[in-house]
């Protein structure tokens, strides 16, 4: 007779001696609970309040905020399971939430980039595609891909499954860089004949898109730089160090995205007036002596109304 006891389940298994990468990711997720979760809930409330006069990308923004809020709600469950419950069933549910985060951020941010890209470079086509049905259909398609990927990640056991995420990140990162760079060049060229300075509204849009481009690089470049070289790492190093640290840069976008959206508003509901003056003072409307054509104003409004960072 051999007395054997089943080893308790632990998500740190195999990483006990190098758990720093996982702890770093957990610390980032804690920030998402403190800042990102209430910010995403506030974004959802604002979008619901503005549903009578929505911007073209509100559908994408709402889906992104809802999924980021869901991911933030799962973080306390993560901590409880890592250090107390140690349940394999709960870990499966957490893996599903990680799959949702892996997919919704890059794909919905790419959708927002497409919306801005068409609005600036193809304004006539954009005016013909403003009906919400196109964006709702695209959102349903993205959600279908998201749930398929998250379910596969939860089940596990698929060979080279991580390469699917690597390919997704590389494709969306490249697309978002091209989109935002094209928008910046288009805005820079649109000063008008004989004008040395950009119109104030276009200058504001230029700065906004530039800041979004910087955030894209910060959130996604670590993944793009590290994940394609998975075969160069030992399995333990990749799983315990590279993956958690790379995901941490992606996960922090759950806080950055809604905060950037809220910071561009002239007035934030439910926010104390003193705080609102600090975060939104630079967005107060100013009187411009130089009028803009109606088409240009509509285009700039589209850019600023969809201003959420694409790392996210």
Backbone structural class = mainly alpha
Distance separating the two termini: 56 Å
Q: Radius of gyration, Cα only, in angstroms?
A: 22 Å
String of helices and strands: HHHHHHHHHHH
Catalogue the unreliable spans.
Answer: 307-312
The percent range for strand residues is: under 5%
**If helices are DSSP runs of H or I spanning 4 or more residues, what is the number of helices?**
11
Largest β sheet strand count, sense and barrel closure: none
Task: Classify the helix fraction into a percent range.
Answer: over 70%
What would the average pLDDT be, to the nearest integer?
82
Question: Can you tell me the overall shape?
Answer: globular
Number of strands: 0
Give your account of this protein's structure.
This protein has 312 residues and is mainly α. 72% of the residues lie in helices and 0% in strands. The chain is built from eleven helices and no strands. Helix 1 runs parallel beside helix 9 and helix 3 packs antiparallel against helix 11. The longest helix is centred in the middle third of the chain and has 34 residues. It is globular. The termini are far apart. The C terminus is likely disordered.
């Amino acid at each position: 007779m051999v007395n054997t006891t089943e080893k308790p389940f632990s998500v740190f298994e195999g990483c006990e001696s190098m758990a720093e990468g996982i702890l770093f990711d957990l610390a980032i997720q804690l920030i998402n609970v403190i800042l990102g979760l209430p910010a995403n809930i506030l974004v959802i409330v604002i979008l619901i309040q503005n549903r009578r006069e929505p911007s073209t990308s509100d559908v994408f923004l709402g889906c992104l905020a809802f999924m980021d809020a869901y991911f933030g709600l799962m973080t306390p469950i993560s901590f409880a399971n890592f250090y107390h419950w140690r349940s394999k069933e709960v870990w499966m549910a957490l893996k599903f939430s990680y799959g949702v985060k892996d997919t919704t951020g890059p794909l919905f941010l790419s959708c927002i980039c497409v919306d801005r890209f068409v609005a600036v470079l193809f304004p006539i086509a954009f005016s013909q595609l403003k009906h919400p049905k196109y964006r709702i259909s695209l959102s349903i398609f993205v959600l279908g891909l998201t749930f398929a990927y998250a379910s596969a990640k939860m089940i596990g056991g698929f060979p080279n499954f991580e390469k699917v995420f690597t390919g997704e990140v590389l494709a969306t990162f490249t697309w978002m860089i091209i989109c935002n760079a094209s928008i910046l060049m288009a805005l820079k060229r649109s000063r008008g004949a004989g004008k040395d300075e950009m119109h104030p509204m276009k200058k504001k849009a230029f700065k906004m898109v530039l800041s979004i481009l910087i955030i894209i690089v910060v959130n996604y470049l670590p993944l793009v730089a590290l994940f394609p070289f998975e075969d160069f790492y030992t399995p333990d190093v990749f799983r315990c160090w590279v993956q958690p640290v790379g995901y941490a840069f992606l996960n922090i976008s759950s806080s950055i995205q809604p905060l950037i959206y809220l910071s561009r508003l002239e007035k934030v509901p439910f926010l104390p007036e003193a705080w609102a003056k600090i975060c939104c003072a630079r967005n107060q409307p100013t009187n411009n002596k130089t009028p803009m054509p109606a088409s240009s104003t509509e285009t700039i409004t589209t850019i600023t109304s969809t201003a959420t960072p694409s790392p996210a």
